[in-house]
Amino acid sequence: MIQNIISVINVNFIILVMIGSVAGLFVGAMPGLSVTMATALLVSVTFTWQTNNAIGLIMGVYTVGVYSGAVTAILLNIPGAPSSVATTLDGYPMASKGNALLALKTAAYHSFIGSIIGLLILAISAKPITKLALAFTPMDYFLLALFGLTTVGSLTSKNFTKGILSALLGVFISMIGVDPIMGTNRFTYGSVNLQRGISIIPALIGLFGFSEILYQVSLDLSKGEVLNITEKEISTQEILSHWFLSIRSSIIGAVVGALPGTGGPIAALLAYEHGKKTTKNPKVPFGEGAIEGIVASEAANNAVVGGAFIPMLTLAIPGDAVTAVILSAFYIHGLRPGPLLFSETPEMFSVILAGGFIGSIMILILGLTISPLLSRIVGIKKRHLIPIVSILCIIGAYSASTHIFDIWIMLAFGILGFIMRKRNFAIAPMVLGLVLGEIMDSNFRRAMSLISTSDNPIGDILLKPISLVLILLIIISVASNFIQFDKRKERI
Predict the structure, then answer these.
(1) Percent of the chain with pLDDT over 70
(2) Positive/negative CA dihedral, 446, 452, 453, 458
(3) What is the pLDDT of residue 114?
(4) Contact between residue 315 and residue 338 where contact means Cβ atoms under 8 Å apart
(5) C-alpha 10: how far from chain center
(6) Three-class SS of residue 35?
(7) Which of the given ranges, 14-23, 226-235, 375-384, has the highest pLDDT on average?
(8) Over the range 217-240, which residues count as b (16 or more CB within 10 Å of their CB) and which as e?
(9) DSSP of 464-486, one letter per residue?
(10) Domain span including residue 133
(11) pTM exceeds 0.90
(12) Contact between residue 292 and residue 104 where contact means Cβ atoms under 8 Å apart
């Protein structure tokens, strides 16, 4: 395997992966400019290129682009991608306390670890994990999404009930648009624009970015305009001391990534929940700047890169939106992803791995070299930073689909997020509901249509090993949330 990977590497390949990595850094760090969009553009540009070079450039963008979403999540509280939502929970509070550089370097190191582990899992166990993914029924996907929704307790440390209400509101909003099964309008109230549904990018920018602007404006800007950025030396040993959590989170990310239609947001939130429950006595509580929160989130969402390729390469089923675009690139170049890929063009598997490993190294190089520069952003006076961030929010919301209505969506969610913050409702659970709502809806209804012709509906749906495991996990998650809530209530 190692010899095959080395055989596809040459100077041109390395340079193109590096160029793609730099592009992925800036694209992923700009809210609204998604890695999926950049990959789609590259497919249209590179279709006449030599196949290895085209895939190498795309792998650089994909690998580093996933990491770079953490940059704005940490510095501006705006997730550069949905998979970076969990990073904002501790990354931005850490930056606000003057530890922006520590947060950025932590994200770089553990994104690197997550990417490497995800690719190793891809190389070693592509076929076994794919068989597991194939065994998932629509009901299993529904239960997996429902389990993700029960982790809402890890996203709100003050009021579990408000967290659940926030998540359910997100699920409701995700239902707006054309019904994917019946093709009828739902909650559109005659609006043609709402038939497209609520786009996740402008909603994210509004909830995290514009609501932060409104919140800061509501404060007295004359007090504490400049954040206290400390110049203390960053301990690499401290960052890497959480290696075991990073490995566990990476495994979670790779496995979740191998399940088509799930991807980074679910992986990061599940890993965050795991990190919160398994970390005993953190120096800083989760949600207030815990370094463990960044470790879990970034390791998991970067490990998804390797995991998402597993069903794409072996079954021609994309694991997420980016691999769906890469799948089209394979077809454009005359390749046939699926079981025949390994027998007809086995070198392409090595090209994917080589591009991913070089891109992972670029995460470390770019993350450690740009961090001292980017961390200075949080030192800009608020009265200067707020107009800049406002413009970025508008540009990001519009550029996601070049649709004016998305700007109004961003503004509406910004106002909603501001009101929720003032009323002590956590924002992250709503994002979780937005992400999981569509998965829950479509898969539950598919499952119900399947059991309509079954002689033993309960057995076919709920008495399968995967379903039983997921149901057990849901019960444990719900019970633990109520136990933690009761303990917090007693302390209060």
Answers:
(1) 81
(2) positive
(3) 93
(4) yes
(5) 32
(6) helix
(7) 14-23
(8) eeeeeeeeeebebeeeebeeeebe
(9) SHHHHHHHHHHHHHHHHHHHHHH
(10) 2-491
(11) no
(12) no
- Spatial distance between the Cα atoms of 97 and 76, rounded to a whole number of angstroms: 13
Q: Which residue has the tokens 């969402």?
A: 301
- What span, in angstroms and rounded, lies between the C-alpha atoms of 119 and 309? 9
DSSP string of 152-189, one letter each residue: GGGG-SS-HHHHHHHHHHHHHHHT-EE-TTT--EES-T
Residue 188 burial (C-beta neighbours within 10 Å; 0-12, 13-18, 19+): middle
How many structural domains are present in the chain?
Answer: 1
Strand, coil or helix: 46: coil
The dihedral built from the CA positions of residue 478, 483, 486 and 487, taken in this order, carries a sign that is negative
Q: Where do the DSSP E strands lie in 143-281?
A: 177-178, 185-186
- Rounded Cα distance between 134 and 426, Å, is 35
Q: Per residue in 167-225, pLDDT tens?
A: 889 889 988 888 877 778 888 888 888 888 888 778 877 887 788 788 877 765 544 44
Q: Residue 77 carries which side chain, given as an amino acid letter?
A: N
Residue 446, token pair as written in the block: 């598919």
According to the model, what pLDDT value does residue 232 have? 61
